[in-house]
């Protein structure tokens, strides 16, 4: 099965992620993606992966447009692109107010405009070596590069959960990064991409649709689901927009219960509110053969690039990541 990515969002050291990236490439994975959040500097980790691999694309999933300046993002992207021999993909996203404001002390306003401005600055700086930009949210008098990027154009993917950002992806991006998708999500996203692309006179068919898919694989199916439960409880409990996403994916009562439990500080109750149906509908979980079938189903219904995203923390996390990598490898 061609075209599978692997994503890392914390739980491993930079060296362990590079080890896993090397193994994923050997098994035929198409791409390796690294989040940031609390998991380490994604560009430094991807630079290590670049030096340990030869073929796979390397991407950010995602880089927050609020916690780094646009020129800083452009320079970091150019550096990893150089080290990888031109294999880098810049995944941009707005992140979440609940992270940006209290954790970084940065104002969170106009996320759509911020993504648009950041993408424009990155593209112009790479293309021309200098940029001046008077955007709605980003204003730069002048910034110039003191080096020459390997490529003057790097693919930019935009992360989206809901229609407005998905339409923006259609207007400005080379690809879309979804997360926790159901089997119906890709087809719906394609409609919104087409709307945005139409306004910009772009070909929507050229925009790749990818999705981060939480993954947990075990020969014991119950154990696989148990391992996936804390991650879904955290995302639906802590992030209001993920709670909305889960509700709109067909689980409004469950999402509400998780939200109430999390707000009350009862993580155990939040996890208890996560059902097996919720886990099955929004990820790749179960026995190895079941997970491979699930990936094929996503692709058959319009997802160009499934990206398996294990959730593991603490002792044994590396082994859990490797188990997913081995089980979901292209056949």
Layout of secondary structure:
Layout: E1 5-8, H1 14-26, E2 31-34, H2 42-52, E3 57-60, E4 63-64, H3 70-83, E5 88-93, H4 97-104, H5 111-128, E6 130-134, E7 139-144, E8 156-159, H6 163-172, E9 175-179, H7 185-200, E10 208-217, H8 221-238, H9 240-248, H10 252-263, H11 267-272, H12 276-281, E11 284-286, H13 288-300, E12 305-310, H14 317-327
Helix pairs in contact: 1-2, 1-14, 2-3, 3-5, 6-7, 8-9, 8-10, 9-10
What does this protein look like?
With 331 residues, this protein is an alpha/beta fold. The protein folds into two domains: 5-219 and 287-327, Alpha-Beta Barrel (TIM Barrel); 222-283, no CATH class. It is built from 14 helices and twelve strands. The protein has helices at residues 14-26, 42-52, 70-83, 97-104, 111-128, 163-172, 185-200, 221-238, 240-248, 252-263, 267-272, 276-281, 288-300, 317-327; strands at residues 5-8, 31-34, 57-60, 63-64, 88-93, 130-134, 139-144, 156-159, 175-179, 208-217, 284-286, 305-310. The strands form two sheets. It has an eight-stranded parallel β-barrel with strand order 1-2-3-5-8-9-10-12, surrounded by nine helices. Strands 6-7 form a two-stranded antiparallel ribbon. Strand 2, helix 2 and strand 3 (57-60) form a beta-alpha-beta unit. The mean pLDDT is 97.
């Amino acid at each position: 099965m061609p075209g599978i990515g692997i994503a890392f969002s914390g739980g491993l050291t930079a060296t362990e992620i590079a080890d896993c990236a090397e193994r994923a490439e050997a098994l035929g994975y198409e791409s390796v993606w690294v989040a940031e959040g609390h998991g380490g500097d994604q560009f430094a980790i991807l630079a290590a992966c670049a030096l340990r691999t030869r073929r796979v694309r390397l991407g950010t999933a995602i880089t927050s447009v609020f916690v780094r300046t646009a020129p800083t993002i452009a320079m970091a992207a150019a550096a990893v692109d150089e080290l990888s021999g031109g294999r880098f993909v810049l995944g941009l996203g707005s992140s979440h107010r609940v992270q940006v404001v209290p954790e970084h002390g940065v104002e969170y306003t106009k996320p759509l405009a911020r993504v648009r401005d950041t993408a424009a600055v990155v593209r112009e700086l790479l293309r021309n070596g200098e940029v001046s930009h008077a955007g709605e949210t980003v204003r730069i008098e002048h910034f110039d590069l003191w080096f020459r990027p390997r490529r003057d154009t790097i693919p930019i993917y935009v992360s989206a959960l809901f229609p407005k950002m998905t339409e923006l992806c259609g207007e400005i991006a080379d690809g879309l990064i979804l997360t926790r998708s159901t089997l119906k999500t890709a087809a719906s996203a394609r409609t919104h991409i087409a709307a945005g692309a139409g306004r910009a006179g772009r070909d929507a068919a050229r925009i790749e649709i990818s999705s981060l898919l939480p993954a947990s694989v075990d020969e014991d199916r119950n154990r696989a689901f148990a391992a996936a439960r804390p991650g879904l409880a955290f995302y639906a409990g802590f992030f209001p927009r993920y709670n909305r996403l889960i509700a709109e994916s067909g689980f409004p009562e469950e999402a509400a219960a998780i939200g109430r439990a999390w707000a009350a500080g009862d993580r155990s109750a939040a996890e208890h509110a996560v059902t097996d149906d919720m886990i099955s509908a929004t990820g790749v979980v179960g026995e190895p053969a079941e997970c491979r079938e699930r990936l094929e189903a996503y692709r058959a219904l319009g997802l160009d690039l499934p990206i398996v995203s294990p959730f593991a923390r603490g002792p044994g996390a590396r082994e859990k990541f490797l188990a997913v990598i081995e089980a979901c490898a292209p056949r």
